[in-house]
Amino acid sequence: MSELKMEVGQKFPLTIKRLGINGEGVGFYKRNVVFVKGAIPGEEVTVKLTKVSPKFAEAEILAIRKASEFRQEAPCPVYSECGGCQLQHMTYEAQLMNKRDIVVQAFEKYAKEIGQTAEIRPTIGMDNPWHYRNKSQFQVRKEGKRVYAGLFTEGTNQLLNINDCLVQHPVTSKITVATRKILQKLNIPIYDGKTLNGLVRTIVVRTGMRSGETQVCLVTTRRELPHKEELIERIKKIDPSIVSITQNVNREKTSLIFGPDTFILDGKEAIHEKLGEFAFDLSTRAFFQLNPEQTVHLYNEIKKAAALTGKENVVDAYCGVGTIGMWLAEGAREVRGMDNVDEAIADAKYNARTNDNLQHVRFFPGSADKWLFRWSKEDYRPDVICVDPPRTGLEPGFIRTVLKIKPKLFVYTSCNPSTLARDLKELSKSYNVEYIQPVDMFPQTAQVECVVKLTLKK
Fold it and tell me: Which helix (H) or strand (E) is 136 found in, with range?
């Protein structure tokens, strides 16, 4: 920050220039960066500083002097308290424009040259940007005799009871509310985050958008479940879509939802779901995309970028449960996927076995750079590498291996524009960045995914 002294409580007018990566408005006061939650680019606001640190300040809006044409009333009644969504106060059209701008900003900051030369396309949005999430994980707590289920208010350990989350599939909300009422009625002990006593911690509901099958999981601190039979019977009656009821035991004091042990209380171990033409069995802890409708658009963009002709050897690095590799299989000579998570590889192998025409798709446990290095020694070099890494981006060793073996085409799918820009700067030593395609996987939030096509320099 500049020499100018800024203090908590200070008030001043501010013009909002852009959107920050967490969905807050960004303005500059005497060349100091100020983040303002709930402000929209183009707005003129009066703010009060709530936090001052050496590199930036945070402020709250006191008054909107000139509102953006894209401002709207957030439809969710608990929007400002919840923190799960960040952009409901903005029209969807503006969300899509600003998500593209978040990508542009990341390249301005971390890889200026690429930002100036690569085509950054308009964000691909959803026809209906509501009720798209197929899975909810709501914490359970008790106050007096009332059982609550919801999310913690942003930055606190105060649970916010949520009856109808507008980004969740309606059946997940209906089942969660009914389940917490059953827990209250049967007086089943509820977990206490402070004393760590009690039993039921979390209600997890996942529904198959296309199959219409739903699974309910109770995450508990121990195996014993009082009124077990009556509890199961009552949950089964909530909705005809429920075909699986499970219990997961998590004894640890942790922010992680699941523990290592899952038990079937009623019905099937897994629910069925389809993505495009592929079928998947989803057990309680299996990873699956939270927005299946938009995942189809994302995967089709990956397929478009890969431009397969049937002759290519494809590597699906960071493959998870193998969905991208399977999506590309039709146009590939062979697909090899790898992942460090053994459970994910077991799921990927099962998924490949249970779908037709995937005999040429194979999955391997272990790191991508280890396998690529080993295969290059055996004279196997992929023509196309696809990656979809976690938010931290690609491991440096993997980038070094890619730059050594030089596949003709590299398709990078990213959920973090900052690490994407950093990684592309390294990869651009040998690759041209043809285009960057943002995709809105999580409407109403500040998150944005990108699919990037890179071609080997001649």
Answer: strand 135-143
> Of 209, 390, 410, 411, nearest to 301 (Cα)?
411
Are residues 301 and 253 part of one domain? no
Asked whether residue 235 falls in the same domain as residue 383, the answer is no
Q: CATH number for the domain including 176?
A: 2.40.50.1070
What residues form the annotated binding site?
Answer: 289, 318, 339, 388
200 and 145: one domain? yes
Distance of alpha carbon 160 from alpha carbon 84, whole angstroms: 11
Q: Are residues 436 and 342 in the same domain?
A: yes
Write the DSSP string, 14-82: EEEEEE-TTS-EEEEETTEEEEETT--TT-EEEEEEEEE-SS-EEEEEEEEEE--TTB---SSTTHHHH
415 classed as catalytic: yes
Q: Report how many domains make up the chain.
A: 3
Query: What's the predicted TM-score (pTM) here?
Result: 0.93
* Same-domain status, 213 and 358: no
Residue 441 belongs to what domain range? 97-127+291-456
Domain final residue pick, 37, 53, 71: 71
Q: What is the pLDDT of residues 343-388, one digit of tens each?
A: 899 999 999 999 999 999 999 999 998 999 999 999 999 999 999 9
Q: Which residues pair with 387 in a beta bridge?
A: 317, 412
Is 88 a member of any domain? no
Q: Which two tokens stand for residue 156?
A: 């606190």
Q: Are residues 258 and 387 in the same domain?
A: no
Q: Are 418 and 106 in contact (CB under 8 A)?
A: yes
Q: Are residues 217 and 231 in contact, defined by beta-carbon separation less than 8 angstroms?
A: no
Which of the following is catalytic: 165, 386, 415, 450?
415
Distance CA 11, CA 333 (A): 63
d(CA 438, CA 309): 25
Residue indicated by tokens 């590309």 = 328
Phi and psi angles of residue 173, each rounded to the nearest 5 degrees, phi first: -65, -45
Residue 219 pLDDT level (bands cut at 50, 70, 90) = very high
Per the CB < 8 A criterion, the answer to whether 451 and 425 are in contact is no
Q: Which helix (H) or strand (E) holds 105?
A: helix 92-110
Q: For the domain that residue 363 is a member of, what is the CATH number?
A: 3.40.50.150
Q: Please state the residue numbers annotated as binding site for S-adenosyl-L-methionine.
A: 289, 318, 339, 388
Mean pLDDT of 255-278: 95
Residue with tokens 């395609």, as numbered in its chain? 437
Contacts of 405 (CB under 8 A, 6+ apart): 372, 376, 381, 382
